[in-house]
Amino acid sequence: MDIGGKTAIVTGASRGIGPYIAKSLAKQGVNLIAVARSESGLKETQIDIENGGGVCHIHPYDLTEINALQGLIHDLWSLYGPIHVLVNNAGIEQYQFFDQIEKDEISSILKTNLRCPMELTRSILPKMIEQKDGHIVNIASLAGKKGLAYNSVYSASKAAVIMWSDGLRQEYWDSPIDISVICPGFISEAGMFYDGQIPPPPLLGASKPQKVADAVLKALKKGSCEIIVNQGPIRPLLAIGQLSWRIADMLTRWFGVPALNRKRISV
Ligand SMILES: NC(=O)c1ccc[n+]([C@@H]2O[C@H](COP(=O)([O-])OP(=O)(O)OC[C@H]3O[C@@H](n4cnc5c(N)ncnc54)[C@H](OP(=O)(O)O)[C@@H]3O)[C@@H](O)[C@H]2O)c1
Predict the structure, then answer these.
(1) Nearest one of 175, 174, 159, 176 to 226, comparing CA atoms
(2) In this structure, are residues 96 and 105 in contact, taking their beta carbons and an 8 Å threshold?
(3) Nearest CA to ligand 1 atom 38
(4) Is residue 92 lining ligand 1, measured as CB closer than 6 Å?
(5) What pLDDT shows up at residue 82?
(6) Is the distance from the beta carbon of residue 16 to the nearest atom of ligand 1 less than 6 Å?
(7) Average pLDDT over all residues of the chain
(8) Using a CB cutoff of 8 Å and minimum separation of 24, what contacts does 22-25 make?
(9) Phi, psi of 228 (to 5 degrees)
């Protein structure tokens, strides 16, 4: 499907993977509305897109203001609508022992990673249904497929995003609305994992951020339901996890994931 001429909101477009997604969409002729808190980060994305001949409006906003998100969608639609694509990409994580994590940190992770995508989607869906054209792309994580030690709240938020997307897809299957979820593993060169400056476990490796942007494009063009972005094939391991949590936990330890996460706790 040709996506040129459509308009897309991309959250978290100020740094990390978001700018890759925004720029890739712009290269396909999609008009961008880039949202994040950092105005300077958004401006960098805007300049890159405009230098390539694309269109990018920026909207600095704190997406944890859940009660204000319906108003945000209303304002963006009035300014730049009709809007055809929402990429829920903004996200945060927090490495910590669960018994030491603060109550507010849990709220912050769940608000940013789960409540915000839900509220943005809830607010925009009626307009998309009315115009008979809409695609929601949620950026989840492989952390939502297998729980992560020392990052369990993040894992819980991403598992919820995957299942929420799954439910939505079935609910809207016979409507003009498409729902996709992207599950990246470790990402190199940019983003929250790269910023931690700890190399990925050698047996798992890391994918480039452009692969996530390519997955978003594929989802939009082909209407894919779920795309995993990982260095090697991971579905067989996930399938083993469905059969035996004991073997899956052992393999996860063998790959060195809990040890890596333990190193990422900032004390
Ligand atoms: N990097 C990886 O290895 C990896 C792997 C799997 C999944 N993911 C997922 O990919 C997505 C992007 O991650 P990333 O690696 O690019 O992370 P990142 O580099 O930390 O960037 C996160 C983005 O989210 C925005 N954001 C965070 N809190 C926000 C808030 N309250 N309001 C508005 N914007 C907010 C940030 O912008 P401001 O700070 O300017 O607000 C930034 O643009 C996330 O959903 C993440 O869970 C990443």
Answers:
(1) 159
(2) yes
(3) 37
(4) yes
(5) 98
(6) yes
(7) 96
(8) 22/49, 22/56, 23/48, 23/49, 23/52, 23/54, 23/213, 24/210, 24/213, 24/214, 24/216, 24/217, 25/85, 25/87, 25/213, 25/216, 25/217, 25/220
(9) -95, 130
Q: Assess whether pLDDT exceeds 70 at residue 267.
A: no
Domains of the chain in sequence order: 7-263 (3.40.50.720)
DSSP conformation letters of 157-181:
HHHHHHHHHHHHHHHTTTSSEEEEE
Is 20 in the active site?
Answer: no
pLDDT in tens, 21-70: 999 999 999 999 999 999 999 999 999 999 999 999 999 999 999 999 99
Residue identified by tokens 């333990």 is 262
Q: Which of 92-101, 118-127, 195-204 has the lowest mean pLDDT?
A: 195-204
Mean pLDDT over residues 167-185, rounded?
Answer: 97
- Cα separation, 138 vs 212, whole angstroms: 11
